[in-house]
Amino acid sequence: MIVGPTGVGKTALSLELAKKFEGEIINGDAMQFYKGLDIGTAKIKLQEQESIPHHLLDILEPEEGFSVALYQELVRKKVSEIKSRKKLPIIVGGSGLYLSAVVDDYLFLGDKRDEDIESEYQDLSTEQLAKILIETKPLLAKKCDLSNRRRVLRALSKDETAVQEKLNPYYENAQIIGLDLDRKKLYELLDQRVEEMIQNGLIAEVKSLYDKRINSQAMQAIGYKELYRYFDGDMELSEVIDLIKRNTRRYAKRQLTWFKNKMKVNWFKVNHDNFDSTVKEVIEYIKKEVY
Length: 291
Description:
49% of the residues lie in helices and 11% in strands. The chain contains 12 helices and 8 strands.
């Protein structure tokens, strides 16, 4: 697994490792699941993939929802498929909770919200409801006043894909490679990348989604939610671009905080002037620790 803040070089490293170790790449960026969100998510183009198989890109329409629990299920299936072909699975991205749910044994309880829960259980006593909650959703039961019927019903109706229990590591031999860069240099690169996205057509990309009246989970992606405000007439374009830059820098900081506090990462400082040296350093580490 390759993790780190946006814009640090994860994609470039993944390609080199896939070529070196006969790997296939699995997307670990939540917003790259969506079709049509290409420029703003820095999604790798087909011609840039160098014939290396890439998985879980463009698997959703922009209107569709998604969950960490579903991602966990899909990735673990992909890992098994890739390993069955005697290839190395390489998960690459910056969506911390999604990635952590794969390598750690996160347990997700339930899979959907039941809107008709009250009518379904109308003939049962509060005590009976509490017993059902304890048996089916013990994590929620621990946090619930089991004598309060309304709260028990609410707990029974909750979407428990959002309830996680972190157990032991799921993949005992997983190697998590983290890329980091001097903060000032990273921020300079991110500002530059936003400018390049604008030049490469980000405004037109977002406008096409805006014109289709898409207001979904996907439209919370950085670059998209800000440009929606421009199209709504709430902000000037120059203000929006500055806001995208600021939000991108803040997101990178949050990503680093997550990976450093929530996951056991082997960190490598990126040599921006000689990225090949960083690639070589990571390859030597993998040879030593894995092969």
